[in-house]
Amino acid sequence: MAVEPPDEPPTGLIASVRAVGREPAPERAGQRWGFGAFLLVEAIFILSAVFITALARTSGTDLGSSVTFILVGSMVPTVLAATAAVVVTYVRGNGPWQDLRLDWNRDDVKIGLKLGALGLVMTYVAAVVWSRLVGDDNATSAIGELVDGAGLPVAAAVVMFCYVCFLGPVCEEIIYRGLLWGAIERQRWSRWAAFTLTTLIFAASHLEPLRTSLLIVIAIPIGIARLITRRLTASVVAHVINNFLPGLTLLLVSVGVMPA
């Protein structure tokens, strides 16, 4: 009796997306964390941001003019939340490499680069349309509002650039398409459900109501990278590429090379 050859894995982005619905959700043996872990991490993010804001106001510091509070307020809540997510996987699971799907290969990087480039195009088109709808005065992100007119020193501007382009994307991917995605998969929901929910929650969690629709567009190619590879590396790379030009613009504006 002839033995059937195994099915070849799908190649190309379109084929990979089509194959998603036919593939079972990955097993999560040993994972003892779920939505409660994500809610804990989100609480850490929100409470730390509130604490930093309250500390600045108590000390009479203007958040928009203090270099220290600009850096601390922008970076610390996200880094703390991502650190808590990693700790959860050690305490209640198998560690971040397995639970958050942090293993990677070259193909993941290639897919992340392609979808990151696609995301740049989508973001540019969406930003142009969105700014015409809401006006240029409302087309600035929360970090952009903090940096705008602050006259950051070169060292602080470089630190902010590194955060926006590299550290921030890694931390956000750990929280949303790592921890939250894993919590959804643990409920045996479909990967399309994980993609949809993480995309919407990622956009809403930035707490910028006017920009939520734009953030959803930004998040779609990043989520697709996670969807078709099942690993976090592709979405991290896509997120980094997507943030690079905005981060570079932020750097050039903050040091006065480009007009605000």
From TrEMBL:
Pfam families reported in the protein's UniProt record: Rce1-like
KW Transmembrane (keyword) present: yes
Keywords from the UniProt entry: Hydrolase, Membrane, Transmembrane, Transmembrane helix
GO molecular function, one term: hydrolase activity
InterPro entries reported in the protein's UniProt record: CAAX_protease (IPR052710), Rce1/LyrA-like_dom (IPR003675)
Domain CAAX prenyl protease 2/Lysostaphin resistance protein A-like: 157-245
Entry superkingdom: Bacteria
Entry's transmembrane regions: 33-56, 68-91, 111-130, 150-168, 189-207, 213-229, 236-258
E.C. code: 3.4.-.-
Protein name from the UniProt record: CPBP family intramembrane glutamic endopeptidase
Organism of provenance: Saccharothrix lopnurensis
